[in-house]
Write a structure and sequence with these properties.
With about 80 residues, this protein is of the alpha+beta class. The protein contains two helices and four strands. It has a single domain, classed as Ribosomal Protein L24e, Chain: T (Roll), CATH 2.30.170.
Amino acid sequence: MSRVCQLTGKKANNAYAISHSHRRTKKLQQANLQWKRVWWAQGKRWVRLRLSTKAIKTLESKGLQAFAKEAGLDLSKC
């Protein structure tokens, strides 16, 4: 499974690591992804999702059903 948030679509970003002497080397800035078990009330079961920490915070305000519908995610397959 790739390192992508299932609700927001966040993924790695290309960047430079700049040393003290200002040499630049390429690096990847990975998204802060966590495995999270979330209660899905309509399905009456737990759903295990790989979410960014920003998505976890947003999930508390929007709710799982609305957030998944906005992202185009089918929770019955998770």
